[in-house]
Amino acid sequence: MSRLSILRAAVPRGIRSYSVARSERSREPGRELKLLHYVYSQPDLDAIRGHPRKVLDLIERFGEEYQYHFMNVGRPKGRIVTDLIAELRPQTMLELGGYVGYSAILFGDAVRRNGGTRYFSLELNPEFAAISNMLVELAGLRDLVRICVGRSDLSLHRLYSSQTVRHVELMFLDHYKPAYTSDLQLCEQYGMVSPGSVLAADNVVRPGNPPYLEYVRSSVEQKRQAAQQKLQLQQGGKNFNTTGFSDRVLASYMGKDSAPAFEVVGNPNLIYRSELVQPEGEDVSYPGPSTFYYWL
Ligand SMILES: C[S@@+](CC[C@H](N)C(=O)[O-])C[C@H]1O[C@@H](n2cnc3c(N)ncnc32)[C@H](O)[C@@H]1O
């Protein structure tokens, strides 16, 4: 089960604990396409059409019935983000890593119910993006959710330079772990992430994301020094900081030899405020807590 953390500009929340059911679910290749067939072969498809919750229920039911593992954010962590959406009422929300659309449907629906108008789901894998698109369509969220196919840094650059998105109100990070920091820095450099932005990042404690946590917890002075050092060494942002990641994480999605598309140092003057929040759990056997960070 994946983890999630949230960064936000608001009153800190309390610490809650939660755990996640562990099971030996299959990671068989092609299960995502099977999911699409399963959903679209439902006899009561017309009753499902236009109902985001029913589409989410089907995604969950398919995984449970066939013991397939899907990398969806799921309900406990999802609830924390939907609570954030209800509180912040963002007009526009972005997610990095859309997979088959579970979070886009869950959060896109919440954005719409809270008066928002746009949800951008950035997904690297064109097959996942296509599946997501079809599920978003079925959920009746086509007008709100836009799926951007390709690597997140290029999509962020395109969204910024086309003036489609100038300020990130709420962003959900759930993609290639080493890209969390470089994508955040890219958003900072463009001014898309600025005071008032709220970031929710999954998996920062387990399997962990030490560079990201270090970056957002650093002081302005520390970040200025790091930025200067980076520029002096002419390392720029062309390498992902891979410190503390397992080989498995580095090899996932983009691959261990991948690099960010842009040389950026971010905006060291931004101050983030973070707080650990653990969502309420389901299964005490799960060995570690999930964490949520709130940033200002
Ligand atoms: C954990 S899944 C996302 C789950 C989804 N947020 C949900 O809860 O339904 C991670 C996804 O990020 C995508 N991904 C990985 N690296 C990416 C990148 N650099 N840009 C865009 N998407 C990426 C993967 O293809 C995968 O579909």
UniProtKB/TrEMBL annotation:
It is an enzyme of class 2 (transferase). Belongs to the class I-like SAM-binding methyltransferase superfamily. Cation-dependent O-methyltransferase family. This is catechol O-methyltransferase. InterPro entries: SAM-dependent_MTases_sf (IPR029063), SAM_O-MeTrfase (IPR002935). PROSITE patterns: SAM_OMT_I. The keyword NAD does not apply. It holds the Pfam family Methyltransf_24. Gene3D superfamilies: Vaccinia Virus protein VP39 (3.40.50.150). It comes from Penicilliopsis zonata CBS 506.65. Signal peptide: none annotated. SUPFAM superfamilies: S-adenosyl-L-methionine-dependent methyltransferases. Its EC number is 2.1.1.6. One of its GO terms (molecular function) is O-methyltransferase activity. GO terms for biological process: catecholamine metabolic process; methylation. Keywords: Catecholamine metabolism, Methyltransferase, S-adenosyl-L-methionine, Transferase.
